[in-house]
């Protein structure tokens, strides 16, 4: 069955979907995106993703062609027609096509934004074998732009980072700026020392993860101690545990950093417990 995708008001088979070659998302990476996970055919944390999308759009003076309620309807319709049980919904808004290549933003009254959504079916996403084994990460310099709090589609460096990790036989990379870990290429980074969870504080230096917010809330409810501050890679290599969070991996244990094995090299109790709680609570509040 061909996947049905959404492009500017229409639900079409993926092979019929069209966006202009002049689209600013294509020419300038002038666009923002969201990834929302689906468990049991329902959306996880849709409200958080919608709120962050509005913020990203606002920071870039970009308009969204539909309301957040309409966006929810589109997500649900795509999940339904594509029969997604476990997987992801990808959403992208770009500043559209002014019919040529000019650096200046076009007037939004003349040029509507482009809205594209598609689903990715990922059976077994929650019961991932990787989560049972844990992942290995390397560290790389963070050379991205200074507004990482805006979820833009400028993902070349994160892709390069993942390839650097792959070349080293690892799964992902943590980025380092001024000696401290900012975040993973597509996730937020955490270490555990004793019973304390340490993760970088929110600022323009990192994406304000929706999974991060939910996991920290649940950790606090479970009386876990949290410290929101920057940490060094040396501190991480000497930690008892580490993990990452994102909509596509939930809570994913990290068992090796730059070749240094953490603990006994298997997922630690804090990360494993947080993954369990997060999945349980997310299923309950899914819409
Ligand atoms: N990435 N940091 C970065 C740089 C990210 O790209 C992401 C998400 C996160 C975690 O955010 P959230 O918990 O809201 O998913 C942190 C998505 C999943 C992606 O690019 O596929």
Structure summary:
With 287 residues, this protein is of the alpha+beta class. The chain has helices at residues 24-28, 46-59, 68-81, 129-133, 156-167, 210-221, 233-237, 269-285, and strands at 4-7, 10-13, 31-39, 42-43, 87-94, 114-121, 135-141, 172-177, 180-184, 188-193, 196-199, 225-228, 241-246, 250-257, 260-261. The strands form two sheets. Strands 7, 8, 9, 10, 11, 12, 13, 14 and 15 form a nine-stranded mixed β-sheet that branches. The chain has a six-stranded antiparallel β-sheet with strand order 2-1-6-5-3-4.
List the helices and strands and how they pair.
Layout: E1 4-7, E2 10-13, H1 24-28, E3 31-39, E4 42-43, H2 46-59, H3 68-81, E5 87-94, E6 114-121, H4 129-133, E7 135-141, H5 156-167, E8 172-177, E9 180-184, E10 188-193, E11 196-199, H6 210-221, E12 225-228, H7 233-237, E13 241-246, E14 250-257, E15 260-261, H8 269-285
Parallel strand pairs: 7-8, 7-14, 11-12
Antiparallel strand pairs: 1-2, 1-6, 3-4, 3-5, 5-6, 8-9, 10-11, 10-13, 13-14, 14-15
Helix pairs in contact: 6-8
